[in-house]
Specification:
Layout lengths: L2 E2 L14 E3 L4 E5 L12 E3 L4 E4 L14 E3 L4 E4 L13 E3 L4 E5 L3 H5 L5 E3 L4 E4 L13 E3 L4 E4 L9 H4 L11 H9 L2 E5 L2 E5 L8 E3 L4 E4 L13 E3 L4 E4 L13 E3 L4 E4 L13 E3 L4 E5 L4 H4 L11 E3 L19 H27 L1 H13 L11
Parallel strand pairs: 1-3, 2-4, 3-5, 4-6, 5-7, 6-8, 7-9, 8-10, 9-11, 10-12, 11-13, 12-16, 13-17, 16-18, 17-19, 18-20, 19-21, 20-22, 21-23, 23-24
Antiparallel strand pairs: 14-15
Length: 383
């Protein structure tokens, strides 16, 4: 519950300070400009306050040693300072939920190649996603959601080496600086339909979120090569074309949201092969055809497919053939049920008859019982 300005830190010399965490308070006012007096600062966390103004150029001195910079959930505006390009050791840059603006600078990709987490979510960034972003080969969380980003998704996302790999490997020896970041990092991400805060398990998450922008064009087929990706959210854009038929390669995918675009064509069969898929939303597109059979896709609620008026098959209404009857694919279960029922009845009936014929004691017993009850097999009506 600490309040007031943080400018007082400029009155004290901190030559050996490596970590400064003032997050989750009620500090207000502008960011100070005396960061050059903290030459060894590695971790700066000012998230979740009421800080305003621009991010000062002094945050990125020529000898910048920052590993983690967290300014999310404040009231900062203006553009990211170009001096941050000097922070070549940054592994985490989170400035989400502010009022920052401008283009996504190409130097983010060319100069900050060590980034594992880049979050610009919920700001006012515009322009296109520069292809230089694909130089972030170590990236595991890329969140550009809730901005005004336009243009196409770069087709080079398969350069994200860490997201192409399926296995999560943990080195036997973790450098001290990396250990410090692991202990202090936390971020809010939109995961499985709701916003969640991750801290100690953040490094296990592999996520791309480009939702709520103005992206156009096809979904690049190279995205299907991200076999280690766990969550992909491209919802609420203006994407067109088909869902890539090779999406079944994304074996680790647990959450997929492509809703509220203008995607067309059929749902690829490979989508039914994603055994870890727990959250799916394809609603409000122009998808058509039969939903691929398999317990995976049929297990979702019908709302997952809402707004695609050309889609049919469980859990939606059955597909109709040109003659107006259920198609062969959709009626396969019903036909099988009826056939098995009839076969079961016939086999059961003849099983009883054969048993009676072969077993004389049963036959005599039933004949005697029928005679005594007045309905025996004598050919005569009862008295």
């Amino acid at each position: 519950m600490l309040r007031g300005s943080i400018s007082s830190i400029c009155s004290i010399n901190y030559p050996n300070l490596t970590l400064l965490d003032l997050s989750y308070n009620q500090f207000s006012g502008q960011l100070p400009k005396c960061w050059m007096s903290m030459p060894k600062l590695s971790i700066l966390n000012l998230a979740n306050n009421h800080l305003s103004g621009e991010v000062p150029q002094s945050l990125g001195p020529s000898d910048c040693l920052l590993l983690s910079l967290q300014l999310q959930s404040n009231k900062l505006f203006g553009e990211l300072p170009s001096s941050l390009r000097n922070c070549k050791h940054l592994t985490m840059l989170d400035v989400g939920e502010n009022q920052l603006t401008g283009n996504i600078s190409p130097w983010i990709g060319t100069n900050l190649g060590m980034l594992k987490l880049l979050s610009l979510r919920d700001n006012e960034f515009y322009g296109t996603i520069p292809p230089e972003v694909c130089h972030l080969t170590q990236i595991q969380i890329l969140d550009l959601s809730r901005n005004n980003i336009s243009g196409r998704i770069p087709p080079c996302f398969n350069n994200f080496t860490f997201l192409v790999q399926q296995d999560i490997t943990t080195p036997n020896m973790i450098p001290q600086t990396e250990f410090i970041v692991m202990r202090c990092e936390n971020a809010f991400v939109y995961w499985k339909g709701q916003e969640k805060e991750y801290n100690k398990t953040l490094r296990l998450l592999k996520l791309i979120d480009l939702s709520n922008n103005r992206l156009v064009g096809n979904i690049p087929r190279q995205l299907s090569l991200l076999r280690g990706l766990i969550s992909l959210n491209l919802s609420r854009n203006h994407l067109t074309g088909n869902i890539d038929s090779e999406i079944g390669q994304m074996n680790m995918l647990e959450s997929l949201d492509l809703s509220r675009n203008q995607l067309s064509g059929e749902i690829p069969v490979g989508l039914a092969e994603l055994s870890f898929l727990a959250v799916l939303d394809l609603s409000f597109n122009n998808l058509s055809g039969n939903i691929p059979s398999g317990t995976q896709l049929q297990g979702f609620n019908a709302s997952v497919y809402a707004g695609n008026y050309g889609l049919c098959g469980p859990p939606l209404a059955a597909c109709l053939a040109p003659d107006g009857l259920p198609s062969a694919t959709d009626s396969k279960f019903d036909i099988g049920f009826y056939i098995s029922t009839v076969l079961g009845y016939v086999l059961g009936f003849w099983g009883v008859i054969v048993t009676l014929v072969l077993n004389n004691s049963w036959k005599k017993l039933i004949f005697t019982f029928g005679t005594k009850s007045g309905t025996g097999f004598t050919g005569r009506p009862p008295p």
